Amino acid sequence: MAGRRAAERWSPAELEVVAGAVLRAPSVHNIQPWRLNFEDGLLVLVERRELELPEHDPHGRDRLMSCGTALANLELAIRVLGHRTYTTEFPDPDRPEVVAAVEPDGPLPPSVTEVNRYSAIKRRHSHRRRFAGRSLTRHQIVDLRDSAAAEGVQTRPILDEIELTMVADRLEFAAEAHQHDRGYQRELALWTVRDEGQRSGVGLAVSARSAGSLPWAGLVRESTALPDREVLKRRLAEETLLAFVTPGDTRHDHLRVGKALQLTWLDAVHEGLVGSVLTQPLHLPEVRAALTEDLELSGSLQALMRFGYPSSAVPHSPRRSIDELLGSGFRVGEAGGDR
């Protein structure tokens, strides 16, 4: 009941804007590991820690990054509704699952950038296929770097031939390791869903899978054709690859890099680009350490992200229902009476 009373300030339409934005955030294996609570006038984002990926994400780093993408969407939704936002990360030491509390803090019209980012939320999806043969300009790359820098996250483009060779080596090693890891393959199969006509749910949609091989496939399956290093290097050279780096490797860093990833992605979508995130190689400690050394990074490497122009339309993955997001028997129609 407390959550319902706290939500009464929102009309059903406003609540649908907020919840809909959170639901459309990207997440590892599309597990959507979050709930949205209403507590004392705050919108509270809760990490669903029971949703585990012990083979892919043994320490929950990707899960928390996923919560960061949801936080970015949550703040944008509140802003387009005309409110300032004041966010506290991990506000309660006794409730580690609470990753952020967002307080609507007075009226303020959204900026043009915020409106553009919000409008890109519905159009954003993971493009795990080959990009169209058109390179990003240096100006576009600088703009993408600036998007993440605003969140205190460093982005490092990987363009140099020597660096691409080193990255290709590390990705090839990681791909072979994952391809022969039976536990990893079972977990990946468990979270892969047939989604013909399916709009509600979780998991990686079969229809969105790449029919090609690395790096476009992203996730390495037993059937993925692994190219040799030279082929892989040429393919990486066709794309714009950014490394996302944080000062440390704490839960705050993981949450913030997720937020930075999402805002960068939304800015890219607004410019007509598509992208996808690569984190699975970085869960092999030796690969993460080697890439950090190879690229001479000054912080913790959290993710690689590929950007380009779309080569084809890619369907969206299924999403949980709004009722499941809000939980506790709460229904959207109950917010704000009959407004």
TrEMBL record:
<dbReference type="GO" id="GO:0016491">
    <property type="term" value="F:oxidoreductase activity"/>
</dbReference>
<dbReference type="InterPro" id="IPR050627">
    <property type="entry name" value="Nitroreductase/BluB"/>
</dbReference>
<protein>
    <submittedName>
        <fullName>Nitroreductase</fullName>
    </submittedName>
</protein>
<dbReference type="InterPro" id="IPR000415">
    <property type="entry name" value="Nitroreductase-like"/>
</dbReference>
